[in-house]
């Protein structure tokens, strides 16, 4: 990583990488629309990884709208790949609209937090809740806090995400690192670091704390 590479430069790299993900899954989305339940499993996994990668990188720059929409899309794709949700035409239509909206948000990342994604999020939430018993449907939108002694940052996630981690037998970890000492001086970029974490588990959330000198804290399973 070059000494003169700024966070703005890394943001450009993130957007470029996110767009590459969107371009690479374009044919997979069309195949999902055409083939539905007969779609190739690896194609569905590829779309899931694209949404997950876009979500992970967005946390570094406080791109909360991109993070929210990509995460909701990731949840639906996770249900499809686990055969808990059939990719019927109306389901695929929602996914297509979500990825299209992500492309629009990535056209202007600094302004993305002011853009409206309510319709897309509501549609994705309905799909996510479809397989749940009536008593758990509200967990898809109900938010809970995750705290840990000695860590000043408080994470928020949906009750559904927290329950899902428990059902999958996963463990929650809070990792704290310094972008300068732990990443930059090792010749890495934040995106390199995220790629490494994604190989070890699933990133649930990232909070970039500028006031603490570039320390980022994340929850992974």
Tell me what you see in this structure.
This protein has helices at residues 7-24, 26-35, 41-58, 64-81, 89-107, 109-112, 118-129, 159-167, 179-183, 190-200, and strands at residues 143-148, 151-158, 173-178, 203-209, 215-220. With 221 residues, it is of the alpha+beta class. The strands form two sheets. Strands 3-5-4 form a three-stranded antiparallel β-sheet. Strands 1-2 form a two-stranded antiparallel sheet. β4 (203-209) and β5 (215-220) form a beta hairpin.
Summarize the model shown.
This protein is α+β, with helices and mostly antiparallel strands. The protein contains 10 helices and 5 strands, in the order αααααααββαβααββ.
Primary descriptors:
single chain, alpha+beta, 3-stranded antiparallel beta sheet, two-stranded antiparallel ribbon
Topology:
Elements: H1 7-24, H2 26-35, H3 41-58, H4 64-81, H5 89-107, H6 109-112, H7 118-129, E1 143-148, E2 151-158, H8 159-167, E3 173-178, H9 179-183, H10 190-200, E4 203-209, E5 215-220
Antiparallel strand pairs: 1-2, 3-5, 4-5
Helix pairs in contact: 1-3, 2-5, 3-4, 4-5, 4-7, 5-7
């Amino acid at each position: 990583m070059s000494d003169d590479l700024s966070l703005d430069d890394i943001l450009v790299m993130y957007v470029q990488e996110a767009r590459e993900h969107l371009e690479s899954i374009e044919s997979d989305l069309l195949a999902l629309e055409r083939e539905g339940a007969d779609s190739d499993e690896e194609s569905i996994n590829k779309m899931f990884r694209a949404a997950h990668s876009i979500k992970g990188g967005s946390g570094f720059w406080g791109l909360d709208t991109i993070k929210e929409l990509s995460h909701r899309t990731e949840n639906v794709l996770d249900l499809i790949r686990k055969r808990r949700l059939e990719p019927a035409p109306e389901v695929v239509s929602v996914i297509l609209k979500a990825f299209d909206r992500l492309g629009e948000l990535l056209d202007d990342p600094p302004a993305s937090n002011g853009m409206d994604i309510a319709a897309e999020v509501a549609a994705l939430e309905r799909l996510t809740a479809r397989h749940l018993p009536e008593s758990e449907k509200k967990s898809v939108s109900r938010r809970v806090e995750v705290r840990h002694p000695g860590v000043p940052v408080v994470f928020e996630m949906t009750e559904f995400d927290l329950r899902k981690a428990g059902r999958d037998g996963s463990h929650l970890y809070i990792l704290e690192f310094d972008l300068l000492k732990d990443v930059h001086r090792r010749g890495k970029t934040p995106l390199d670091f995220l790629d490494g974490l994604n190989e070890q588990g699933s990133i649930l959330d990232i909070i970039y704390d500028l006031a603490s000198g570039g320390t980022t804290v994340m929850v992974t399973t």
